[in-house]
Design a protein that fits this description.
With 359 residues, the protein is mostly helical. 67% of the residues lie in helices and 2% in strands.
Length: 359
């Protein structure tokens, strides 16, 4: 079967870039007390458009691994690639820890948070790469996905209630991280972290699903890609609708994996048709080719603004005039849009100069 000519597709870079831009948009409102409603995460069960951004990025991590490594694996280079994915995954994880250390130091946080977005990306990058290089057959890789979904689903169902306080994933994470998670109650010993270690089982399934969809794209099996998208999305919705398993981003439940992975596959198919086939502009590509650098740079920018006490004056003086016109929520949205626009200019300039910062 014919495969795509390049390991780098503009559509994949664009979709990755749009996900990064979405992360910056939802992570940087001017006022956390007045976040524009569509940019809010679901309180617990259910989903909003914002809840699609992070799983789309992890899905694209899997797609990108397939496009970069698939042909090399077919040439028998699997053993050599394992060290590469392990080292890069570790570098991404360490970068996440460094960014959290910077926030802890400059923003005078009470405790250093260990889990995080980049830490989970690093783990999923390394583990998905190891699975793909060790178990090369599609059947084995699908078995890995099924085993993760069934195993993690059973752990959640048999481990108690699926509310925020009682779910087993949060209980295990609280035992491991204690005050170094996102939320922690020293009186009860309970806590929760949306990027906790246990939920990474679901996130790994998302990344491996991205790998399989990347293989479909690489071999131009677009009908298979569409079938994966529709089938997974319907199965995820079905699990949620029947009450067997809720769609829940905080726990990264199997239903959430299937629903967001299915939508990710359909989004991948759509942007491939529009950009790679029909030649539409690859909007978001500049973010996509400097994805980790843009995320890390935006994080440091926010930490410096908050840590040195500049965020309040910038928001008040630069955006205060908007509140009588659009209200506090519109003002907060305007700050977030401008923040993304500034970083869009930065990554566009980097791209035009051929500067690509890799981790």
């Amino acid at each position: 079967m014919a495969s795509v000519n390049s390991a780098r597709l503009a559509s994949v870079d664009a979709l990755r870039g749009l996900a990064v831009a979405g992360m910056l948009l939802v992570n940087d409102p001017g006022d956390w007390d007045h976040v524009y409603a569509p940019l809010e995460h679901a309180a617990w069960n259910g989903w909003t458009p914002t809840d699609l951004i992070y799983p789309f990025f992890l899905f694209i991590v899997g797609v990108s691994l397939s496009l970069a490594m698939g042909a090399k694996l077919e040439a028998g280079q699997g053993a050599a690639l394992r060290g590469t994915v392990l080292k890069r995954g570790l570098r991404i994880l360490v970068l996440g820890l460094v960014l959290h250390a910077l926030a802890w130091w400059l923003m005078d946080k009470t405790a250093f948070r260990v889990p995080g977005v980049l830490q989970r990306i690093g783990l999923c990058f390394a583990l998905a790469g190891l699975v793909a290089t060790r178990w090369r057959s599609p059947r084995a890789q699908w078995l890995w996905i099924v085993a993760l979904l069934l195993g993690y689903g059973l752990l959640l169902k048999l481990g108690g209630p699926l509310d925020k306080a009682g779910n087993i994933a949060s209980r295990i994470d609280a035992r491991i991280f204690g005050p170094h998670g996102y939320e922690w109650d020293p009186a009860t010993g309970l806590g929760h972290d949306p990027e906790g270690l246990v939920g990474t089982l679901g996130a790994l399934a998302t990344t491996l699903l991205g790998w399989r969809c990347g293989e479909a794209l690489r071999h131009r099996a677009l009908a298979r890609l569409a079938a994966i998208g529709v089938g997974c999305a319907l199965l995820g919705l079905g699990l949620d609708a029947t009450g067997l398993m809720p769609i829940n981003k905080n726990l990264w439940t199997p239903a959430f994996v299937l629903w967001t992975g299915g939508l990710g596959a359909l989004a991948l198919l759509l942007v491939h048709r529009l950009i790679d086939v029909r030649g539409w502009p690859a909007v978001g590509r500049s973010f996509g080719v400097n994805a980790i650098a843009a995320y890390a740079g935006a994080w440091m920018c926010t930490v410096f603004l908050e840590g040195f006490g500049w965020m309040g004056p910038v928001y008040a003086q630069g955006f205060g005039w908007l509140e009588p016109l659009v209200g506090p929520y519109g003002r907060s949205l305007a700050f977030a849009v401008v923040f993304v626009a500034v970083w869009w200019v930065i990554v566009k300039l980097l791209d035009e100069r051929g500067i690509y910062i890799k981790v």
